[in-house]
């Protein structure tokens, strides 16, 4: 199995051995580092003992043995009673070489039970736990609120949202079977014994986890995957994912489009009002404040629609020490409360509005920033940059200013120049992001740029157009009607922009089959 | 969805609960059955032992039988999801009769009356041979035996053949010519014992994945794979021979030539057990390494190397499937393979066998008992002694038994076009997807006055054309035996009841026999498949495929028994044919038939410059009537694709995932997803044949092996066009900036 395609030197001394050796050597890779290490007990597919202190279970996958039969996928679905669309174990393809020295390998993957599980770290409700005895990353459906943040965090696309249940689920290494001394379903089903369970020493693995990497898999750096992969010898150097040309748009997450844009609008408006207060405006700010408060409330309401279990939304506050999603929920909850007080103080012209306004502004900016940090996940490269917080804050600045303008509380150069500045910075932000992605070495980033310049090109241009018109309109006249129009156009532009933000992201993932339907986080 | 679910109060915890089954352990609670029914897989001929889990009368789970000698507990993805086929939405549930142009439900009684009335009317008017019957490799042996008698002796027509002619008849013919009888001589164990395994046109990693276990169990082997396409199996090989399509006869003759020249042959074996060696030696003289190199495209050194490796082997195994069989030169290729084995004495010993890896779960059963291309028990139509013996066993006049076989499958189709066949009974097969050159087949089915389709599924592309649809029970719903590729007879058991009014084919045949009036004569007292089995044991006694020592109990006890297993046989062990060097020919010697290479019939030209080969994918079975209804399999392989080398794609300005049409002289496959890959050679393209939506047989040709009548499905000359629909839809998804494409390292070949 582990041989160059055209020949293994079964009888290297024969004179007949000339062959196409020259061709073969072109694809022969230096096999140092790819040497196969046989498990100690090769007859058993699971370890004879439980992991000791400083150890955990892990999968071993032998890529050279796998024939891509997908028995493991079917067995996993049967084991866990999952519908066909949800596959906790998946099989992808990588391919390289040139005819007839072509090689196609398969990657079978469940959960990698990482040492630094990004699903767990991001989870706002502590639905994930890493079992101290086995190292298995377990997920509790009861605790889960269906926010699907873990599906964005995992570079391998392991956690999958089950819309029928409203919660996420994932491979738990069949811990119940392991406890009985039985192989996990995938391990048992593999006719080639390509999947095994091993015990790994955690500290040793942390020092050197190079064999968690394989062509067709994202770097193990993101979370320190524990799955050990035995690569075939003589892997062609151009071995790559075979689904590399199929680039699809992701889900739009409309509740989140609405939620992010409206929280930013609300935060931006309150900030504008507070700035106006600093400069001693005499215009009553009540209408604008109440409007901004309403928008903020709407935004928080919209966000629960994204959850598989909206009734448990409050649980998202739980993990504020670790999860940016918890922090966002916490900050925006505080923001709403303080903004409510601020609006009341403004409405009833009570004292203290200046300092409460300062706190409101601060919480708004902090909330928006926390919001942005949710998306700064290595698994989604197009989100994982400074462009994201800049984008979010500028949306807030532009829309807040224009809403204030539409309410008639600001006009003249502060409005025109402010809007122009915010819009042009946003344009610059989007343009530099696009160029950065285009020039990137990363397949995911280039693919996002490609989506924006092909499938999504018209939306992308419309978004820029709306931004420009929205920012330029106040220059011509600052009548309430025109400013309102400018606000409406800019709002539409930012909503479209946020839609593009969600749909154009190309997540990291394991190689997929050439044909099969894409797995989606939600 | 309920409010509770929408709010998130209900997460279907009960549905997704786990529990521990005492046999299988911790698993999804709803997959834990009340009881497990032992049976044999109903897909391919590997013949894996398995259990079906039954809960409240429904099949909820399957698992491999760990004690079974074939699969040791594993199953392929189709087998692992086989229980879903039982409740597929397209199961045929009621007899349907076409009335005023529409199929409508009728009683079984009316349905069988309609069948009899129409068949007998046609036969009365045009003669008994105006009835044609096309069956399958999917029924149990007991049903094949019953059907054979019913058709040949009851209806009195010999125009009866199975879809096995579309896959295995070539191996049958080749074996008959070389050894005097059908019957694969080896066993799976040979894969574990051989030191050389040569696979020709056989992609077992895709098509018989469980056989790979037996390969894996052999650490000493050198695996050589000859295939024009770099299949999964080719990638497993120690030595891959990427030969030009249909050049295998030249390769084998070249090997024989080298071995004779080098003296690496078993002269003693040749002298004692074969005839025709001198002629063979003469005929292969022109297959010099240089000549073979020109034909196959393989380097001379490689051809020499393969010959020497084979020649040095202590035990050499040659396996083949459709790459050999789907050919106008198929039978001759099988003879060439047999020649290679015979002159080196690689037959009848552990590890040494020329081995046809069969296709359907019970293709072997119909070959043994089916009364199609042979009389039951591998008896010959043309042999008066055989006919007399059968007549005696059945207590009927010898004249009732035909002295020549009737029309083979493709000839039945052609006879229907010519209106010589006027009524057709199609059983458990789907020719609209599986028969080559679809237009001819359609014309044939539309020409007959009465078309009966008996199947477990409706609608299928074929049953939609029927005048009468008879709903049949399928695997998991009936009892009997299957024979696998290594002649292992395994038991099949019912786990659940058939849906609606569907009945086991066995019961349907007996009911027809009763209406026809031949029940008492042919099937006296039969009520269960076991009655047929007992008679079949007597009929097979003393033949190569001797069942007489078997019983249902013994078969179940051993997870299958290989024939021959004559009465009084004590030990159940691995058996091989021809271990004594005695063959089934009159003089007991094997025949060395000269096989000549010829170019394949449809050579590419300027209009049709590419060569189309067809094949399978592991997720699907044949025409997808079953697997197309299993969601997990459909998810993993949702549509057909066309493989094309990047050089050709570059020339045609095609990109991965483009939609393309495949056009031949016969027709057009529309809108297939393009896969640009180095798996196929420049100049060749490949498409899987399972998908009616992208039916490969719209472009395949009407060319058949003159001996076996098997179609030449492979090597159709085609051209590839960008699909019209795709061109319209294209627009936005097209990349405008090539620089954004992931760049591949160029080897200068593009």
Rg of chain A over CA atoms, rounded to whole Å, is 27 Å
Side by side, the strands of the main sheet of chain B go: 7-6-18-17-16-8-9
Number of strands of chain B: 28
The structure class of chain A reads mainly alpha
Number of DSSP strands of chain A? 10
Q: Could you tell me which chain pair has the largest interface and how many residues each side has?
A: A-B, 92 and 91 residues
Calculate the mean pLDDT score of chain B and round it: 94
- The H-and-E topology of chain A, N to C, reads as HEHEEHEEHEEHHEHEEHHHHHHHHH
Strand content of chain A: 5-15%
Query: How far is the N terminus from the C terminus of chain A?
Result: 39 Å
**Low-confidence runs of at least 5 consecutive residues of chain A:** 1-42, 518-522
Mind summarizing the main beta sheet of chain A? Answer: 3 strands, mixed
Report the radius of gyration of chain B as a whole number of Å.
26 Å
Q: Helicity of chain A, in percent?
A: 40-55%
Number of H- or I-type helical stretches of chain A? 16
The major β-sheet of chain B equals:
7 strands, mixed
Tell me about this structure:
The complex is a heterodimer of chains A (522) and B (750). Chain A is mostly helical and 522 residues long. Chain A has helices spanning 21-27, 71-80, 118-122, 149-153, 175-179, 185-189, 202-207, 254-278, 286-305, 324-347, 353-374, 387-406, 412-439, 443-453, 457-476, 480-503, and strands at 55-62, 90-96, 103-109, 128-130, 137-139, 160-162, 167-169, 195-201, 228-230, 240-241. In chain A, helix 12 (387-406) packs antiparallel against helix 16 (480-503). The longest helix of chain A is centred in the C-terminal third of the chain and has 28 residues, at 412-439. Residues 1-42 and 518-522 of chain A have low confidence and may be disordered. In chain B, 32% of the residues lie in helices and 18% in strands. Chain B contains 29 helices and 28 strands. In chain B, strand 19 and strand 20 (488-492) form a beta hairpin. The longest helix of chain B has 19 residues, at 108-126. The chains are: A mainly alpha (522), B alpha/beta (750).
């Amino acid at each position: 199995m582990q041989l160059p395609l055209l020949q293994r030197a079964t009888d290297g001394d024969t004179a007949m051995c000339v062959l196409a050796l020259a061709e073969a050597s072109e694809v022969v890779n230096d096999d140092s580092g790819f040497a196969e290490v046989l498990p100690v007990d090769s007859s058993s597919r699971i370890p004879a003992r439980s992991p000791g202190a400083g150890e955990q279970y892990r999968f071993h996958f032998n890529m050279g043995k796998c024939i891509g039969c997908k028995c493991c996928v079917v067995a996993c679905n049967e084991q866990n009673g999952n519908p066909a669309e949800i596959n906790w174990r998946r099989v992808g393809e990588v391919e390289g070489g040139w005819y007839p020295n072509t090689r196609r390998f398969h990657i079978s993957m469940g959960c990698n039970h990482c040492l630094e599980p990004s699903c767990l770290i991001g989870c706002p409700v502590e639905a994930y736990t890493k079992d101290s005895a086995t190292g298995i990353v377990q997920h509790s459906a009861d605790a889960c609120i269906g926010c699907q943040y873990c599906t964005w965090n995992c570079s391998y696309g392991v956690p999958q949202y089950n819309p029928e249940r409203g919660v996420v689920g994932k491979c738990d290494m069949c811990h119940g079977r392991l406890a009985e001394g039985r192989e996990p379903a995938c391990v048992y089903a593999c006719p080639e014994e390509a999947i095994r369970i091993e015990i790994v020493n955690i500290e040793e693995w942390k020092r050197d986890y190079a064999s968690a990497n394989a062509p067709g898999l994202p770097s193990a750096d993101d979370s320190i995957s524990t799955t050990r992969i035995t690569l075939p010898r003589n892997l062609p150097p151009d071995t790559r994912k075979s689904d590399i040309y199929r680039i699809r748009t992701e889900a739009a997450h409309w509740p989140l489009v609405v939620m992010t844009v409206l929280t930013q609008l609300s935060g931006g408006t309150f900030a504008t009002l507070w700035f106006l207060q600093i400069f001693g405006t005499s215009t009553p700010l009540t209408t604008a404040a109440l409007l901004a408060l309403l928008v903020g409330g709407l935004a928080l309401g919209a966000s629960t629609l994204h959850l598989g279990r909206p009734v448990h939304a409050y649980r998202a506050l739980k993990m504020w020490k670790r999860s940016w999603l918890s922090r966002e929920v916490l900050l925006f909850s505080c923001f709403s409360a303080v903004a409510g007080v601020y609006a009341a103080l403004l409405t009833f012209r009570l004292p203290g509005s200046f300092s409460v306004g300062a706190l409101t502004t601060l919480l708004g900016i902090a909330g928006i920033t926390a919001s942005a940090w949710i998306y700064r996940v290595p698994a989604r490269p197009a989100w994982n940059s400074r462009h994201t917080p800049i984008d979010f804050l500028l949306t807030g600045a532009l829309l807040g200013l224009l809403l204030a303008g539409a309410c008639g509380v600001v006009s003249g150069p502060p409005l025109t120049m402010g809007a122009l500045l915010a819009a042009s910075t946003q344009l610059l932000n989007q343009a530099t992001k696009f160029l950065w992605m285009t020039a990137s070495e990363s397949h995911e980033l280039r693919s996002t740029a490609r989506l924006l310049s092909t499938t999504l090109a018209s939306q992308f241009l419309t978004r820029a157009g709306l931004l420009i018109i929205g920012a330029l309109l106040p220059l011509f006249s600052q009548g309430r009607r025109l400013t309102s129009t400018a606000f409406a156009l800019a709002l539409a532009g930012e909503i479209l922009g946020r839609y593009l933000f969600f749909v154009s992201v190309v997540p990291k993932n394991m190689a997929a089959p050439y044909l099969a339907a894409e797995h989606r986080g939600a | 969805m309920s409010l509770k679910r929408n709010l998130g109060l209900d997460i279907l915890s009960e549905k997704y609960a786990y529990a521990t089954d005492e046999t299988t352990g911790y698993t999804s609670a709803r997959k834990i059955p009340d009881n497990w029914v032992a049976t044999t897989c109903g897909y391919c001929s590997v013949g894996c032992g398995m259990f079906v889990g039954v809960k409240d009368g429904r099949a909820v789970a399957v698992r491999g039988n760990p004690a079974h000698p074939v699969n040791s507990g594993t199953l392929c993805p189709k087998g692992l999801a086989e229980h879903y086929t039982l409740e597929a939405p397209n199961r045929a549930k009621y007899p349907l009769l076409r009335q005023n142009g529409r199929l409508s439900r009728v009683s079984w009684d009316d349905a069988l009356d309609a069948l009899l009335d129409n068949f007998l009317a046609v036969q009365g008017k045009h003669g008994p041979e105006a009835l044609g019957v096309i069956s399958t490799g999917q029924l149990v042996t007991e049903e094949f035996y019953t059907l054979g008698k019913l058709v040949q002796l009851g209806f009195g027509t010999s125009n009866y053949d199975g879809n096995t002619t579309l896959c295995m008849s070539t191996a049958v013919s080749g074996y008959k010519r070389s050894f005097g009888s059908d019957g694969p001589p080896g066993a799976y164990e040979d894969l574990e014992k051989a030191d050389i395994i040569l696979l020709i046109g056989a992609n077992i990693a895709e098509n018989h994945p469980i056989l790979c276990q037996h390969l894996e169990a052999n650490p000493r082997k050198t695996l050589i794979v000859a295939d024009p396409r770099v299949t999964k199996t080719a990638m497993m090989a120690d030595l891959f021979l990427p030969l030009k399509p249909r050049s295998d006869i030249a390769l084998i003759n070249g090997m024989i030539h080298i071995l004779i020249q080098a003296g690496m042959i078993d002269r003693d074996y040749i002298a004692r057990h074969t005839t025709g060696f001198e002629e063979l030696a003469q005929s292969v003289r022109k297959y010099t390494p240089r000549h073979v190199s020109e034909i196959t495209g393989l380097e001379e050194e490689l051809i020499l190397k393969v010959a020497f490796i084979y020649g040095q082997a202590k035990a050499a195994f040659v396996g083949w499937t459709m790459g050999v069989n789907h050919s106008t030169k198929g039978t001759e290729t099988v003879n060439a393979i047999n020649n290679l084995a015979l002159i080196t004495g690689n037959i009848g010993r552990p590890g040494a066998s020329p081995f046809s890896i069969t296709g359907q779960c019970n293709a072997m059963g119909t070959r043994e008992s089916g009364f199609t291309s042979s009389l039951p028990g591998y008896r010959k139509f043309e042999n008066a002694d055989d006919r007399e013996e059968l007549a005696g066993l059945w207590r009927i006049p010898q004249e009732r038994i035909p002295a020549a076989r009737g029309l083979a499958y493709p000839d039945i189709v052609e006879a229907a076009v010519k209106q010589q066949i006027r009524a057709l009974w199609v059983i458990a097969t789907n020719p609209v997807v599986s028969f080559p050159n679809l237009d001819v087949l359609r014309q044939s089915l539309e020409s007959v006055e009465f078309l009966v389709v008996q199947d477990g599924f409706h609608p299928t592309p074929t049953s939609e054309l029927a005048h009468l649809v008879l709903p049949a029970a399928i695997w998991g719903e009936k009892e009997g035996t299957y024979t696998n590729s290594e002649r292992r007879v395994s038991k099949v058991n019912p786990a659940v009841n058939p849906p609606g009014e569907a009945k086991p084919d066995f019961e349907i045949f007996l009911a027809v026999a009763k209406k026809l009036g031949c029940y008492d004569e042919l099937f006296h007292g039969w009520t269960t498949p076991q009655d047929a089995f007992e008679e079949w044991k007597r009929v097979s006694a003393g033949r190569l495929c001797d069942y007489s020592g078997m019983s249902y109990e013994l078969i179940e006890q051993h997870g299958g028994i290989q024939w021959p297993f004559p009465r009084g046989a004590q030990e159940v062990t691995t058996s091989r044919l021809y271990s004594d060097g005695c063959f089934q020919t009159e003089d007991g010697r094997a025949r060395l038939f000269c096989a000549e290479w010829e170019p394949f019939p449809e050579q590419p030209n300027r209009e049709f410059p590419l060569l189309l080969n067809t094949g399978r994918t592991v997720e699907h079975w044949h025409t997808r009537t079953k697997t197309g209804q299993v969601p997990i399999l459909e998810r993993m392989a949702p549509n057909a694709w066309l493989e094309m080398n990047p050089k050709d794609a570059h020339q045609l300005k095609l990109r991965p995932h483009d939609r393309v049409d495949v056009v031949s002289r016969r027709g057009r496959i529309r809108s297939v997803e393009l896969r640009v890959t180095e798996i196929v050679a420049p100049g060749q393209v490949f498409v899987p044949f399972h998908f009616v939506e992208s039916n490969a047989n719209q472009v395949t040709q009407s060319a058949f092996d003159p001996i076996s009548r098997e179609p030449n499905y492979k090597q159709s000359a085609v051209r590839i066009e960008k699909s019209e629909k795709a061109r319209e839809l294209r627009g936005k998804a097209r990349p405008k900036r090539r620089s954004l494409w992931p760049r591949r390292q160029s080897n200068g070949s593009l």
